[in-house]
Fold these 3 entries.
Entry 1:
Amino acid sequence: MKCKEELNGRRSKLMLTGTLAMFAMSGLRAEAAISTDKDDHKPEPNANGGRVYDEVADQTRPSQTVHTFNIPPGTLAEVAAALEKETGLRMVISSKRYAGVQSPGVQGVLTIEEALTAALKDTSMAANFVSPERVSLDLLGADQSVSVVATSELISPKYTAPLRDLPQTLTIIPQAIIENTGSTTLVEALRTVPGITFGAGEGGNPVGDRPYIRGVDSQSSTFVDGMRDIGAQSREVFNLESVEVSKGPSGGFAGRGAAGGSLNLNTKMARRESFLAGTFSPGTANFFRGSADGGLKLTNSIAGRLNGVWQDSDTAGRDYVRNGRYGFAPALLFNLGHRVRLNTNYYHLMTNDVPDPGMPYNNPTFFARIDGRARTLQAGDGQPLVVNRNNFYGINSRDFRNEKVKTALGRVEVDLTEGVVLRNSYRFGKSNQDYVYSMVDDSQGNIYYGLVYRRAQQRFSAVDTSINQTDLSGHGKTGSIQHSFATGFEFSRERGWNSTYTLGGRNSAGVVAIPTYTVRNVATGAATAVSATRCPLGTGAAGGYYCTDLTNPTPDDPFYGVTSATNLTTAAPSAPVTNTLVKNFAPNKQVTGTRSVYGFDTIRFIKQLQATVGIRYDHYDSVYRSALTAVPVTTFPTISNLVNYQVGVGYKPVTAATIYGSVSSSATPPGNSLGQGQDPSAITSAVNQALPPEKTRSVEGGVKWELFGAKALATGAYFQSNTENVRITQADSTIAAVGTRRNRGLDFGITGYVSRKWQLFGGYTFMNAILLNSGGAGAAAGLMDGRRFPNTPEHSFSVTSYYSVTHKLNLGGGIYGAGKVFGADSPTAPKWVPGYARVDLYGSYRFNPHVELQANLQNVGDKTYFLQAYTTHYAQMAPGRQGRLTLNVHF
């Protein structure tokens, strides 16, 4: 992990770790007297980031409150006493022998965090919040900089209780885990959380991020800084502080969708300190990556930050598959007086990739050829074919994926009182996705003859989002009952459009089409027209390069673009124009507007009993319009009024533990994904337009317990989610929202220190996810009833572990695995990928406070396994073994 105990090149570092409360309760003041602990000890981080919570009021955040300080230099005891007087916080010096340490004092308009940093400058002392009103001052520990959980902080004000007391399963992936595991994308970071898989597809977002949480596609339930970010894309991590993974229906928090859970990505904001950090990472598979992150305190009230990344790499174990990207993210912070703050940031990311076509399944439908070609394969059991893992079935000169993401955020926070904060956020974003890639299309049974048809999947699309969100959060009392509350409203507008490319031939009527070729039937001698999708003339130029060899693919083939050939139904294309793509500027469009209001409250009746309740109303209004070139042009509007809730009760037998039960809901209306992913109820037809929202209700019961002196948090939960109004095809072939499904299971996790030097982050998830009423036309009616969800393993686990051998040397790694995953659990033609277990290794050595060398070896055993399983055609292979060395610097 990066060296973090130095600030501005000096030896001391303020260790204000973990979930620091939002603001102190109005009138709350601690003792204004200096205390010292009797026993000498070094402060240790814990699962709540170095704090011990005892009251609901702990959800305040005193470290960010602004004060005017005029404290002269003096002993640590004198300066700490002055800090107590100004801030109302209790400063506890761990040993009397440190009381005489000389402090430079504190001057200026600063947050408490900044004041403590100034007071401890050049003292070799550290500050640690052990509660919202108590700060421990101790000698800086040599191993404090390697805390995995130092940034495990709930950022969203909608969470009105500490992580330990929330009545739901929620995991925070801190920046330290992201960095130590060598993760460069959101997909890689999410491997550290069990119960999450990834989906594949044909259109929409087939090669981008499609996380499945508890068996539900959650692409449209991804949020950035608390606001929905629906655009199809492959997400980077260079600008992330943490990732919040909420499991279970969370419509009360997230709004529409979120039937399996949601993701919230917390980005890097400017902070009032000057620093400079950077990384350079070469690795195998032509991996090169560099990043920089710098902050500058411009004045006492203005600070800036700029971070960026550049990467160019191949994919280990996969020929031709590559990733290229660069991005940058500036941010500014303005303190507009003691009680008002303005945060702004901008995010820009460009990618240039060659996507992976995947591997074909071994049991497609069989079609007998008429040309006498010998069959070389028999049907298999539904898993991917066993071929050379490096085989690339694309066309290198044609296949690409380019993405561009630009977002801007403005956020104003006002401290109405010391315990109540009003926040308004506005976010505008635009994302573009542009791709052509060769999907291995097994629908024609070509693999049985040693051939692969390279079907061109293509799209170019854009999404604009505009969101305004206002929150009021704080805490207080009604008599003897304590409250920690958050309420707010939100207005959003999302606009998406999708269009396609022209590629392939153009027949004599000027219609773009996949050509057909004349083939002689060896049995009858008759000439028959056969589509290029059946590879009638084999591979190479004779077959128009549409097909390639199954065992020895030819990715350097040219491809045919738009041509003015006379008639492609009787001969191979004539006079082709190679390497040409033409965009069709005739998009379909969808616009969605949402108006929402919500409220949450954690109510503490007595010390042992509390309840968390929340409700949200969304007015959802969406309209789809087909391309203007369509005949006829169609428009399908839909309106839904959605009410979702979360109610949980927690019993605390001891301060460190919470036993809870909760009920939550979600609703997914037609057109929820804005055409950016797989949406069974896309509002592209009058039938779907009239469908009611899918509704999911979940019950969950569990235990959360802080262990090892509150340095680790262990969790365990049982859950059951039931979904109704699922869109299905009925026996008479009509469409209706009468399907049902159920997912019940167990979820365990642990985060934090299990000893002073040993840290764990991981868990295990069991899911029994069943389709109860899946429909089906004619003889297929009920065929899938009782079968498993797609993309939902029964068992999954992850363990990331680090051990501080010395204060300079850290070793660790991870084990990540999942059981069998179905793309389609069909009783007649299943599609699935086998389970796997993957091992990663990690090590770092800190040469001095500024320089560290980190090594990562991912997929140590070069395990062949699959990340994504589509319902048909193909499965997406995971990268092979890759080693990286990273030079981390920090000043």
Entry 2:
Amino acid sequence: MPPVGLKSVYQQYKRDTNIVASWLAITAKSCGYPTDLLSEVATGSEASASAQTSSTSQSKTKGGKNSKGKKKPKKSGKAADSGEHSGPKKYTVAVAEYIPLAQFISTSKSEKAKVPGVFAIAINRVIRLRKEFSSKLAGIKNKRNPESDMSHNYFIGILEQVRDVLRPLMTPEAKSVETNLSNKFEGLSVDEPSQDFLDAPDIEKPKVVYEAEDTMSDTDALFILDLLWKDLINVRGATKAMWINYNEGSDADLTAVAVASNTGFDLARHMIDDVFPVLEAQKNGFYGALKNKHYMLCDLIVSWSLTPGNTDAPELGLRIDDSVDDLFYIGGRESFLNTLSILSEVLPGLQSNKKPIEPVNLDNMKDVMARKGVPKFDRDRDILKHVFEDLAFIDDHLGKKDPSGLIEWPHVIEDNLLRGLREARQTGKIPFYLAFASQVLLDIHHYLGKKISKPKDEMLDIMQKLCDQFSEYYRVLTTLDVFEKFDEYDHEMREVATGCLELQEDPIYMAKLALQKKKKLGSAAKPEKHGFWKRHPIACGLLLYAYRITMYRTGIHSANVSRSILCAMHLYNAVQAEGQLQQPWPDLEAAMALLGPSQFFIGGKVPTEMKEYSKSLMMQLGVSATSFMDPSKRRGKTRTKVFQDVYHRLIQLNTPTWMAFYDRYVADYGRTGPGAWRLEDVYEIIPERFHFPAEEDSKTPEKPKKTKANGKAARKPVHPEAMDPASVIIDLSNALEYEAYQVSFPFFVLHAQAFWVLHDLREDIRPFVEDVIGPVANELRKPAMPCHVVEILQACKNHPDPSRALFMLRLSADHLERVLTAGLGPGQFWGPPIPGVTWREEGATCTRGEAALMHFQRLGYDLPWKAEPTFEEEEEEEDEDDWVIKFR
């Protein structure tokens, strides 16, 4: 459940003002305040509903008859109730009522006239926020609306007087609350609910809800916008921190940073949507408040530039020799008017068959805005012009169906920039969140500087390595003549491999060349290959996410269909436990270290005796445990279901944060509904261990895995009461980076190699198996061929001579050693040798047993047994020695 404090600054302010108004009205009425003296003004929706009800009732005659005097049929009770009690009535408490209500409560002798801590916290927080804003206004020399400022300060005086009147009635908890809270979460306590609370019946919902009156002068509108700015600046700062970390060569994962950045744009879009209609309904609208915000920022920036030693100046990039144009550029950068101005110029010029895009009218602000000719502004304009020209081209020409119904390179991932462009084309208006996202993109360009090509180069490099992995997968399955039989299980991975190859040539670049040729634009400038990807680092990370998660998900799925990795793990464990195999299978060791034993063995218990091997594997494959019991000892039915639902016994996709974005970026190509990905949604998908530090009473304390060569672990998580949108974005990035280690392991390469090993083993050991258990099926269904390991282990268990049973395991071990030590050929793979593996063929750079790890190391990851293992959340405590099959 999301914590109480998980709100934007504006949402918290609205909640606090409503708490103050609601408590005053409800407490006063409960203390005997005359109802006729309380100005209960119905909200707009309530008033319209009331008017509609009144209009409907007037059309009816008395006695419930229609105009002809006939009785109308009665509605069912449920229908009537749903119409009459669709929700509590909402009333607005006028600001003028606050002091009379407080005075009445203070003179009341009712026991209910006690001021709780939640009221004290709320009123103190509202006063603090408004006073902070008043202090900002006091520092501005050019007063634009003194009367509006007085109106803003008037409400502060009302609240302070209410607090003073009620102070004698405050409970000890309320008195302990400081009147000057340092942040919006101070004073909150987040406790686990007791069992009595959870078992308590639902409380009756209130029939009336009181809300604070929205008094909105120009200064109040500017104050509301300033609340929004606090969150926007924090999200922007969190994004900056992630990209700086990435740029400094740390272990920051490009995919994690890009997905978290675009999610930050989602949060910003929702926060803007919360505030935009409130301000747009005022006299000067949202952009009127925005202009005032820009004026205020410019005044402050000019003041800071003239104040020696000002601590805010370096953070904004202010220098003593900055010109007035430079100062206006900085002001527009912080108010987002620079990007809004650029978009107003660029977007209407992009040709489209859709509705013309109207520029935002900023004419009366030309005197305090950056203009063409200022180098920094011209640079930003050039970047955004090229980015949005490419986005418009993508929207018009890529991901479209041709006449045959095929889709040409469909992997166009919609981020918030492409979403904003499409929205502008559909509505004819530039959404403000697009100006915010555009400024953050410019920030990323400024952070990366000359390294702006780094994300593009990394994306192409990883995609080339994904192609190499798929080539090995294709080579193995083609050799075994089963590649086509896996098509229905791995077709998504094949599409990704094709997409990776196409991206090396850049589909956007190729489509532009084709369009120039078609329109005979021989004199046009040749487009820049991979230019869009260089200018849009977030797009690089999002496409990389879609390709990497598809490879991971499809690889696990294909391995589960054939049970290749599962059966290979059980056979490998048996021959090692019996001392028949002295050398390791490095890829399987890596899989065990990454996933843990519970992914391969029921209950995470690794069998160590001959009689347990076949039983353990059959149960993992879905055979019911009762099938191994003596029928006379079974309770209830003696005939039981042999096979159980085996889905939960197969290898699970143990990367919840990565999988949370699968539908969005893979199935829907980034498109999402207007209400999706709100703050609470994002918080819920982040594993709890990234919100809470490990507790001392945890049975298996978390051991963060080292993710890349420098071995840097994820940062220590924070308590939820300190969570805000920016913190959620940082935690999301950490969670994605943490899970990237497992996602990057090429399970489909291990699946192919395991399939190959078990395929060859089947023919070698088949005669010995048939001697014990009789003739076996000529051929299992090709994809399920690895399940013949059950026959081997069952034959070993049933053989009356233990030495002969051990002999069959020795034959299996000899086969494993012979096949696993076979080299895959020089020059096919690159990477350092795997420690402990000394038995490669001469001239071979890799063996079948380490193919997946070689690819893993090429991506820059440490070997799994060099990093701390990921401890699974199991109810029963398990021995740490069981987490990795030891080299024996």
Entry 3:
Amino acid sequence: MENFYTGEDFTMIRIAMGSVQDYEKFLQENQETEEFKEAILVASNNLYETLEKKNRVSEATKRAILKYKIRNAVRCTPYGLFSGVGMIVSDEKTLLKINTAKVSKRARIDMKWLFKYIKEMLRDERIMSIVKVRKNEICYVSGNRMINPYFSAKGTAEEKTCDSFSIRYTKPVQFVMEICREYISYEDVLKRVSREFCIEIERTKIFLEELIRSEFINIDIMPPLLNTDPVQYVIDKLGNRLTENTYISFLRELNCKIAGYNMTSMGEGLELYKDITNTMKSKIDINECVQVDAKINLEHQTVAKTIKREVEKTVNFLSRLAAGYSEQDYLTQYKDDFLEKYGYDTEVSILEMLDNNVGIGIPANYKNSQRKYVDYSIRNEMLDALNHIIVNKAIIAIKNNQEIIYLNDSDMDRLGKHEVRYETLLNSLDIVVQPLAKDKKDIDKGIFTLLLSGCISSAGAFNSMGRFSDMFWKDITYDNQSIEYEEELLGKEYIVAELAEIFRTGRTANVDMNMNSVPYQICIECNPCDGKKNISLNDIYIGVDRKNNRFYAKSKSLNKKIYAKTTHMLNNFFGSAAYRFLRDISSLATKFQIGEIVTSLGNSEWEYFPRIMYGKTILRPARWKYENTKEKDFYTWNEKFVKWAKENRVPDYVNYTRSDNYLRLDLRKQEYRELLYYDSLKDDVITMNEDLSSEDLVWLQDENGKKHCCEMVFPLDKKKKVHDDMHNENFLIKEKPGFFSDTSRNLFPGEEGWYYYKLYGMSGREDEFIGIELRNIVQKLSENKIIDKHFFIRYIDNRPHIRIRFHVCNKNEFSRLFFDWLIEERRKGMVTDLSLSVYERECERYGGKDLIRFAEKVFEMDSIFVEILKEKKYHHQLEMSDEEIAIWSIWGILDSFGLNLEKAEKWMSSMISRSDYREEFKRMEKTYRQSIYMKNNMSTEVQSAYKNRNKTIKAFYSGIQKSGLDNAVSSTEEDIMSSIIHMFCNRYMANNSWERKVRALTRHTIYATLSYERFHK
């Protein structure tokens, strides 16, 4: 079995504060300990206040307390003071031991509170007089408007908040943006605007305050989210400019109090915590003012490598399913739109691309997208096949009263030989496991079971540790080593940049705020930190790599591709479209996600499904599903549920599961069933997994010999791949043109004689339509001198259609004949719908404005060539395969650009691996070699169209050479040549996979022809 990943030695451990031995006793106690009270206070101030009241406690409150008691004993997921984290190292022996008496608290001001406090501070004129401001880099100009596509409210958003802002791009706005390219004193801006436009100071203040409120300009005291203590940052920024201020003094005092609280032992910080939160609420009254995490002292920090080896084995087994992975449909559709508008060989500003007016808009499924929603379901043929095997095993297991299904490598082999595409694998990931064993010695001997736990995996090593990174930053160098390895993995054409953004809900900043060693940063709506090179959004361009047909981001100033990473566990639904898109194309929507695969194993509809294991790893625990009757009273529901549980042999201990959250229940006891009843009132189906946290499977001990549940987060890195012959040490990224919008090149219907139609309805009959129907009307219009130019492309935009441009000489006659033809096509069922659109000339893609008319002539002759080919195919007058025709046509394009066989082979080999479609080529090598010089196998009409097309390309190429190309605003000669090949493939077949195939076959054919001619000289 191929190994794709290897584990890091550093591992995070997550430990429940309560011991499993004291679990039952603790649940029965009516008097809560001081430690538990403090944990409740940190988790829920309202619940704590209810507890403190001496009145009768409600049943709902009792249930809430019970849930926290369960969490305290068996939930390891970090949550306030109910669990803690630590760092351990994989070694030869397990010496791990914890000391719960020495727990380090890490309290810090909640970021939502801080954002609101900063907003309040800015009402003070003394504060405003010393701050600095700068243009918000996410804002851009569109026509006579300035757009802010993402309004973050700087983390203080309430429910009814605008998503974006648009203002008139007046001269005062333009002036402010010009002088605020870098941070400048607000007072200076105020005076300069007032002086420049003769506006009184008070009116100027209102104007600038509105620009600040709508976030067209940012303020420097908003803290960075990376490598920064946010409160100290605000204090330092203001303290250096203002000797004394009540706001600054308050923050300093608050910092001192929090530092004091962090020194207290568990259970001893109640009064100080209440004092801190009451003080904070006197300024900004929100529910949670302080965020608290716990670090558990580890007397010994090693765990046997046996666990890491088993994790590696499991991950490598599951990674074989990556061979069947396809990127998310919504991104594929968006990529098709990108290629239609810009092509492979142009890089477009991310801000312009996402604009609905000048770009292609926001992708489907993003917030504020104007596109139709696309289903998120996982598409993986290998997973479907493996699930078929699992279901068959489950049927046998249930029939034989067996509780476990075992998967093995031979099961994966049965799926067939599939090559895992290296680029679909994440560069690194975290895997969360719960080691189950009797004691430490058994772990050393390899006698243990691993349970994939909670949120099974993340899309990057150490992401699970992100929000705790400041707690370990001084102790270890794990992060620096991981980043260096990732840079080596990506290669010299890439840089790694940490992505940071202030979201509308400021509390999320508690999670995505982190310390890391990533050398670059991309900061949206937040300030960059010191010590990292900042990449502006204005500097980021998007392209599609022709070799792997995937999106990439690129820094124009650095001429490097960007791998945008995030060191946190927030999902990709947060933030601006730019933030989400950069995350998606780097990992989340383009890479194989193990967590998604594991949760899809087995049949999710069955009432019962057995445990699924691979080796020593429980991939999925046994699961029961109860169709919730939603009775109005507990006792009726309870009677039905107990009967069902008995009939289905549901164990006493289960985990009530919802997404990655779970609650351990003892179904023997009524109070637990009541808890389940009330918690699941809105659930149509109640899902329960078998519980495996019994005392005899818990091995981690504290200083008193008590056992604690634990989880381990193992980071794994993708192994380096030996690159093929198209990569070398001296690799340098070729500069590609940036796409710059120019509305003057967008032609409305009739402008300069151009009309652009989208014709829908010929799905499955496109070849017939192109070769017969379109060819007939074009010949008629041309012969009658009604048009002198036309060209078409195929396209899929929700539904397949043909896009046709006509250059019209006689508008009245065109309208009459063309629309008569359309009515006839409707009768034939060929055209059922149409639209008339703006013709956006692709000047940059084809050499600039001066050369676009030459390019349009090439488009016309290539269209006529394809129309004739399709006509002959339709009448069975063309015996050659589509692949032979494509090789012949592509070679004609290369030859027209002045490339001989040797140069053509060299150019194509720079983009195509010699292993692609090699087996197919070997079977047809002789036939394909004959395709290049296909002289006598074509009709005179086809040969003539071929020669005319190539003659036009040669004239275009001559024009390119004479005019010279400005590569800052135009494609290179090679890119133009590649675009013409792409457009032929689109007109002929309109299938990106087929295009990649025929490009590869053409490369192999040229190479083989060159070798053959050299040998037979």
